[in-house]
């Protein structure tokens, strides 16, 4: 398994996201490592998400130098990233890894086939991860779906 087995949980019982454990990150160095991590993450996410929750779930990457990046994959397999203001410094890395120019908002829409490159590019910047069962992605109103 790619994660350290020692898990720490945020103690707030009122928030579904807070009940999800924060896991220390182990730097992933190869595409095989990333693909194995994605497989493990998908299993963990399926266990954490309730059947009636079809929007706003994913993973939160806590970055070493500050900020958070929330990742959600759509039913079409595309990727939504919500990059906090504190994590905006990571935009050049996201662009270099995916070939997608920074958006004018905090929400990035990426093609699904860039997931492995994205995780590989961000890997050295991540300090920890947390499964997210509810996140309000602030997508522009003209986008076809709200996530």
N- and C-termini, Cα separation: 29 Å
Helix/strand order, N-terminal first? EEHEEEHEHE
Quick one: biggest sheet?
A: 7 strands, antiparallel
- Return Rg in Å: 15 Å
- Per DSSP, what share of the residues sits in E-state strands of 2 or more residues? 15-25%
Shape type: globular
Strands, count: 7
| Main structural class | alpha+beta
Any low-confidence stretches, pLDDT <50, length ≥5?
1-15, 140-147
**How would you state the average pLDDT, rounded?**
78
Query: Helical residue percent?
Result: 10-25%
List the total number of helices: 3
User: Which sequence of strands runs across the widest sheet?
Assistant: 1-2-7-3-4-5-6
Oligomer: single chain
How does the SSE layout of this entry go?
Blueprint lengths: L7 E2 L11 E4 L6 H18 L9 E6 L4 E6 L5 E5 L7 H8 L8 E4 L4 H8 L3 E7 L15
Helix pairs in contact: 1-3, 2-3
Give structural attributes.
single chain; 147 residues; alpha+beta; seven-stranded antiparallel beta sheet; 7 strands; 23% strand; disordered N terminus; disordered C terminus
